[in-house]
């Protein structure tokens, strides 16, 4: 029984292989791969890659110093972990300002110099952008707490469910990704719960609000 099963599996695999080669051979004459499908993309975790000023944290100038190295190993694009302004509760994935470079990595001038150096060597620069949530220190969230328009509904806010004992409970049983606790956090000032799929300090943006969608589109343009 084992031998028969094994032979059948090999025949099945061989048949799929032949079929796949036939399909892709046919496509190769009419379908051209995009750059990201055929070039090497090198991910750089900025804070630990290269420290140019001796403060113990990797930075943009440190990356610039190694551009020729990336060229020598035929890298087509570099992908940087988040470098935007952040309180660093989640190593930059909690962004407090999408328009500013975090000073621990350098300045906007440092970024532009790094970008230009990569481009001179024909290497693209990709930034790790976090659209799902912001830091709770972001101006949008602080204004949303206070219900300052148009930011009132920039985040996912819900009223509590009152149990039979009169206690406030979260609006659903959803759990956060990082732990087994609730994905909802109570805010005393606003007297509502807000959704955070990740850390408590990373409130989720409300994409049912068209204003939020338009805000985020700006950063992609």
TrEMBL record:
Query: Does the record bear Hydrolase in its keywords?
Result: yes
The signal sequence is: 1-20
One Pfam family of this chain: Alpha-amylase
A GO molecular-function term, please? alpha-1,4-glucosidase activity
Q: Does the keyword Hydrolase apply?
A: yes
- Some GO term, biological process aspect, for this entry: which one? carbohydrate metabolic process
User: What is its EC class?
Assistant: hydrolase
Q: Which UniProt keywords apply?
A: Glycoprotein, Glycosidase, Hydrolase, Signal
Task: Name the EC number(s).
Answer: 3.2.1.20
Report domain Glycosyl hydrolase family 13 catalytic positions. Answer: 43-221
Write out the catalysed reaction.
Answer: Hydrolysis of terminal, non-reducing (1->4)-linked alpha-D-glucose residues with release of alpha-D-glucose
Q: Which InterPro entries match?
A: GH, GH13_cat_dom
User: What family does this chain come from, according to its entry?
Assistant: Belongs to the glycosyl hydrolase 13 family.
List the protein's name: alpha-glucosidase
Q: What is the primary gene name for this protein?
A: LvpD_2
